[in-house]
Amino acid sequence: MEQKQEQKQFLVFDQPAGRTTSYLIGDVVIPAPSFIPEIKGDEDIEVILKNSKLLPIGNPLMVPAFRWTKLIENPLFRDGDVFRGLQPALSFVKEHPIIFYDPPELFRYTLTKTLISYALKGDRGAARRFNNYLKKGNQQSAIGMVDPFFQPFIERQMPSILDEMDVKSDNSIDDEKSSHLEEAWLDSKINDAYFSYIFGIVTEAQKMPNATVIPPVPPLLKSSSRTFLSRIKMANRAASLACKMASDATESKEIFPYYHLYVDWNIIEPGQGNDVATVLQLVKDGVTSGRYGGVAVTIKGYEDAAKKRKITQLAMFMNDIVNIAHEYKLPVITPRSKWYGLYFTDYTTQGFSCLLSGTERYLRRGAPKNPEVKFGKTPIIEKCIEMYLEDLKAFIKQNGECPTIEGLPRRIPPELLTKDKDFRINWSKPMRLIHIEEARRMRETKLKGIWNPAKLYLERSEDPLLKSIT
Predict the structure, then answer these.
(1) pLDDT in tens, 102-120
(2) Whose CB among 149, 183, 370, 426 lies 3.0–4.6 Å from 197's, allowing a Cys bridge?
(3) pTM of the model
């Protein structure tokens, strides 16, 4: 007979009326809904440490799992810089739970240099050595530089990597492996490499005062075979076991991973293949056969779903997942979801996140960019819309200033208009923290007895895709 996990509860139904919830990461109780900023690299850490006062104490931060420890080893971030307004990372992590999250797209799409950089933890010297091996025709030595978990994914895109470098292949990589990158999840190397990899991530997460891990998993597509479904279960179970082993082996506090699903939005569509029932069975089987601290659902294709007016259907799908997770006192969060994730909080998800750049995922390095794209998009609170620089300047000219929150500027300092990096660090990326205020307002409104504040809020959106939700 199926039994519920005998473990601490990670979901709290707030009293007295239970209109809102809170959730736990480590010993920290987080009011829900919450916005969880996701950082990618040095630039994003600088933004967060410069604007740490905008994050309520206890607000989580999502970090690149494999790179995080090396990123905060940088003395500038580790110790802070009072003259640049940077809070020391060592004090920041005492106040904010850290969510370790490997970008799932790295193990699905051909991202060449982006994957290599991540697998080498952003070490530019290592990247040069990697490239030198390839230029000398020594692919195996290059691949040998990265953790075995990454190797099958790099092998399958080696032709593209070499093509970008104008280097001829030494044919040491099978041609059959050069396509369908997600098939690397079925490589025999993964059998041996995955547990060691995730155990290493868990070990690093344990060094944080409060942390959790969202493990990398294969994508769940309508066409995914049973073998793929087994791999999804394997990855999540491995994370559960790694956390238990790491917790048992040390005197530090226990750590519990999130059960993770990475799904295409059209899993909700009728027709042949996997469907909502497939997902719900995975969730039910997962949370009853391992020890988890929550459920994370990364959905690909929000804009495509919105164009087909399927976001409310997606929300109902999320509500089905919530019902299962909440039965086992587990919170549900939606990485990479922006305002769509805010909408899901009406269906009692606990958190939503996005990259500070606002992009849906990591992009392929070296892809051509027009100058305006380099400045990034600025999200506008209450208008629920993102603007590139020229549109933003026109908006401010028309309205006099940019709606924002306390602690962020209302007008663009002129010196930022010619330097894209400075603009991103001091304007467009900090503005992404408006979602923290939006989440706070949703909670406040729910406490007044209004169950769908996000829907009401998004009705004022000037983004036609978001407006299609309502």
Answers:
(1) 999 999 999 999 999 999 9
(2) 149
(3) 0.95
